[in-house]
Amino acid sequence: MKKYIRRTIIIYLVYLLLTGVLIFLCFENDPLLQADNPGIESYWSETTGPDQVVLIDDRSDAWLSRLYLIENAEETLDIAYYTIYKGTSGELFYASLLEAADRGVQVRILLDGLFHNLNGPYSGIKYALINHPNIEFKFYEPLNLFKPWTLQNRLHDKYIIMDKELVLMGGRNIGDGYYIDNYDGARVYDRDIIIINGDKDNFNNSVVKDIVAYYDLLWEYEFSSYPVKKLNSLQKKLASKKEAYLRGQLAEFRDKNPAMFTQTTDWRSRAVSTNKITLISNSISRLNKDPRILREAGRIIEDAESVFILSPYIIPTKQMLKYIDFEELRDTEICILTNSLASSPNYPGIAGQINKRKQAVDFATYFYEYQGDGSIHAKAITIDDRSSLIGSFNIDARSCFLSTESMVFIDSKDFNQLLKNSIEDLKKEALLVGEDYSYVKNPLVEEREVPIFKGIIVGFLRFFVYFIDFLL
């Protein structure tokens, strides 16, 4: 019996290695194939368009803006998130959605099927949402151990779409580290935008229309599924108990923080105009996807004089580099800001970055690593003094080929300047990496100390991730 069990485990592990890891070494996409791509000039316009945009950097504003959209929704809320962490922010977020549904708002929630955090004691939240008549709830690619290849394709988008009129998107997940000022754990510095269709009569020319259509594709995707078709009596009991708890938490929080729920912030007045906003998203499919964002970003920056790239990780793989025309970028000033070993909370990710660090430093004109408190989780690119890219996309193979991702290209000088100013604040807490790959001393920035244990673990991981950088 033991021999049979051992043999079964070995067979499954081989099956897992072949179909859950090695299969992703196969790429069918041709980096030179651009037949379906729009002309590069289509990203810009010389006249003001219908869309306006608000940049949200401040942690409190990030939370208030989410409450604002949920509380002011009248018809629909479409929500997609990679993960909603356990904690105060997550519970208040779910409770606010229940209240919106009570008002008659039709709510759709799509979460990644692995990293939703709604198992075990938190499964009651899932049942409470499913139990509400005005809420639809799905998982994108739920766990299936019999199909290991599905483990790698994850939902990485972050959206709230209100009444098909306002869209909040960016890099933030839902978690206390992103929003709470007095959070005891490590802070996460991220960035969102609110896109406003300022001309309702011109919806067809608004990027909001494209984002709504993209969300519908994710929702209707054949492997996005309802976790439970019908609740049984035990699940209904758990749903009622957890719903009462969530509503109680929200009521208590509202009593202590009434100003948050009587917002006077006029988000529209903070918006800047744009000439054009264009959605760029990866294909929605299994295995290796068509890396549309990587390919389009590569095309967009080819004629730029200066490019600033902000990403939590910089892990360029051989397959990614096939989409970059280095000859075209020979005269382009490229500045990169990312996490340092000390600041990154993602051990496999930073191990992969260290493996590729020399290559990345050689590619960039200036390469900075963050030394401040917390970590960078924001993803953005500025191009010259007019254009910007912002969204959920990291500079790694996972974002390029495996995960659903979306970025918006924003043609706006005003927004470009706001974004540059925001990035500059982070750069002030970073150190430049010199030609010898050590830090250039800066009397205003102290190199952050790497915990001994972290250094050992990351050093150990570097060997293993070297062979699977296509999955990082």
Could you name the CATH class of the largest domain? Answer: Alpha Beta
Give the helix/strand class: alpha+beta
**Radius of gyration over C-alpha positions, nearest whole angstrom:** 22 Å
Query: Biggest sheet, strands in spatial order?
Result: 9-4-3-2-5-6-8-1-10
Percent of residues in helices: 25-40%
CATH superfamily of the largest domain: Endonuclease Chain A
Sheet with most strands: 9 strands, mixed
Give the second-level CATH assignment, the architecture of the largest domain: 2-Layer Sandwich
The rounded distance between the terminal residues' Cα atoms is 38 Å
Strand content: 15-25%
Report mean pLDDT, rounded to a whole number. Answer: 88
Low-confidence sequence ranges: none
For this entry, what is the oligomeric state of its chains? single chain
CATH domain topology of the largest domain: Endonuclease, Chain A
- β-strand number: 19
Count of helical stretches: 14
Any idea how many domains?
A: 2
Structure description:
- With 472 residues, this protein is of the alpha+beta class.
- The protein has two domains: 212 residues, Endonuclease Chain A (Endonuclease, Chain A); 219 residues, Endonuclease, Chain A (2-Layer Sandwich), CATH 3.30.870.
- Helices cover 35% and strands 19% of the residues.
- The strands form three sheets. It has a nine-stranded mixed sheet with strand order 9-4-3-2-5-6-8-1-10, with helices on both faces.
- Strand 2, helix 3 and strand 3 form a beta-alpha-beta unit.
- Helix 2 runs parallel beside helix 3.
- It is globular and about 65 Å long.
- 42% of the residues are buried.
- The model has no long low-confidence stretch (mean pLDDT 88).
